[in-house]
Amino acid sequence: MDLEESLKLPMETIDDLENMEILMNEEGTRQALLRKLSFHRSNRMEYFIRKCLQATFTDRLATVCSWSGVRESTKISDTQLIAFIQHMGRKFYPNLTANEYKQQVSVWFRCAMTRVKRTEGRSSTSHTVRNSHTFTE
């Protein structure tokens, strides 16, 4: 198994995030992450950032994180992973400013609970529909 496959993405827990921060000190990890996230390149910078965040954080993990760590959430603004995604963004989108990046990332994390609720609602509805349907011959 190569390094790219061994990266546990998307991360599901704070422990996964902490482990990723340790791994980010290794050049091999950064190269593997670069290869993996480069596939999300888009015509629009917003889509690229969103896809990179979706590829690295589950919505569940995102619900306990925020840019600045407000209300006992985990602060992600100073993590190596977030800085790495920003660096990639600037490489692909030279006009990307720090403020634009912060805004995009903040909104994505802030909306995480909505995505979780929507996903749970969708899965419980489809499960109910499948189980309540009866066939008659």
Automatic annotation (TrEMBL):
<dbReference type="InterPro" id="IPR032071">
    <property type="entry name" value="DUF4806"/>
</dbReference>
<dbReference type="Pfam" id="PF16064">
    <property type="entry name" value="DUF4806"/>
</dbReference>
<feature type="domain" description="DUF4806">
    <location>
        <begin position="5"/>
        <end position="77"/>
    </location>
</feature>
<protein>
    <recommendedName>
        <fullName>DUF4806 domain-containing protein</fullName>
    </recommendedName>
</protein>
